Amino acid sequence: MKALVYDGVETLNYRDMPDPVAANGTELIRIEAVGICGSDMHAYLGHDARRPAPLILGHEAAGVIVGGVRDGKRVTINPLVNCKTCPACRSGRENLCPKRQIISMQPREGAFAQFVTMPPENLVEVPADVPLTKAALAEPLAVSWHAARLALDALHMTDARRALIIGGGAIGLAAALALRAMQVTDITIVEPNAARRAFLRDTCGENAVEVTDAFYPVVIDAVGYAATRAAASARATPGGVIAHIGLGEDTGGLDIRRMTLQEITFIGTYTYTAQDFRDTAQAIFDGRLGPLDWCRHQPLSEGADAFKALRAGEVPEPKIVLIPAH
Fold first, then answer.
1. pLDDT at residue 98 tops 90
2. Cis (ω within 30 of 0) for the bond into 54?
3. C-beta separation of 244 from 264 below 8 A
4. How far is CA 199 from CA 204, 211, 293, in A?
5. Percentage above 90 pLDDT, the chain
6. Is the pLDDT of residue 54 over 90?
7. Mean of the pLDDT values across residues 30-43?
């Protein structure tokens, strides 16, 4: 098969790779759409030791099952594989499984390829009227759905349901869509890139600003740098909640004194539970997350160029979805 392979820092090559083989109860999926994630960019820049070269990246995918009793079924892929037996898995918190694995991270090759194999329980069937390019967004949308759910669960019942999202990429925009689906209507996105800010306003209908000095009961950091954590801890109201999704850099930024004196809750959020993924997929199918028409589509063979454009800050769209040829 053809695949886009990470071969070293800022080096991607579209080349032949061995075909995956369905074994041990897994399904073979022909990939029809796969999104570029921020974690793929971190790996591309050499910032993720969990993704050493050579490796096929990509984990935001949808496609069609090939072979077996479900041959031809259209599916979106939950890329998080867990053990099913540990306390976290048994309690419905599969994202905390100590043995969790995710495709695009060793030892599992990713979905920037024509085919991938997955356990059947990781596949959610997609209705015939939902394009697979939209179904592939279930994974990044589920990340934000999970964060939004945790943040609102932690919010005091008397606090206003107002939210600030730091970062207007796919995860930040997805957080806005998830919060809105959860009946939060007062949402502001802070995005420093002028072209992306304009895209969020003009195409997505979001309240996107360069900076804000207002305070919010819910703050979602979808970037994860010291500067964005500093902004999050500064802009949360007393008694508010910060949900931290981004993995930009490891340390720095939080104003621990203010967070302590003002009883600000900080929640680290990672991926999603299996139920969050299913709920997000259903919200896509039901249209509750909007038209999802804010992606750029490019052939997988042009994936290296797409990464270069993202690296240069030349992409106003929050998401690039790559389309393998078959």
1. yes
2. yes
3. no
4. 7, 16, 12
5. 94
6. yes
7. 95
**What's the CATH fold of domain 141-268?**
Rossmann fold (3.40.50)
Predicted TM-score (pTM) of the model is 0.94
Identify the CATH homologous superfamily for domain 2-137+292-323: Medium-chain alcohol dehydrogenases, catalytic domain (3.90.180.10)
Q: List pLDDT tens digits, range 156-201.
A: 988 989 999 999 999 999 999 999 999 999 999 999 999 999 999 9
CA 280, chain centre distance (Å): 12
Q: Residue written as tokens 């007062």?
A: 186
What angle is formed at CA 321 by the lines to CA 316 and CA 324, rounded to 5 degrees?
Answer: 145
3-state secondary structure the chain: CEEEEEEECCEEEEEECCCCCCCCCCEEEEEEEEECCHHHHHHHCCCCCCCCCCEECCCEEEEEEECCCCCCCEEEECCEECCCCCHHHHCCCHHHCCCCEECCECCECCCCECEEEECHHHEEECCCCCCHHHHCCHHHHHHHHHHHHHHHHHCCCCCCCEEEEECCCHHHHHHHHHHHHCCCCEEEEECCCHHHHHHHHHCCCCCEECCCCCCEEEEEECCCCHHHHHHHHHHEEEEEEEEECCCCCCCCCCCHHHHHHCCCEEEECCCCCHHHHHHHHHHHHHCCCCCCCCEEEEEHHHHHHHHHHHHCCCCCCCEEEEECCC
Give bridge partners of residue 60 from the DSSP assignment.
35
Q: How far is CA 157 from the centre of its chain?
A: 28
Residues of the chain with CATH 3.40.50.720: 141-268
For 241-252, how does the pLDDT look when each residue is reduced to its tens digit (9 = 90+)? 999 998 888 899
Locate CATH 3.90.180.10 in the chain.
2-137+292-323
> Would the pLDDT of 229 be above 90?
yes
> What pLDDT, on a 0 to 100 scale, did the predictor assign at position 47?
87
The pLDDT value recorded for residue 105 is 93
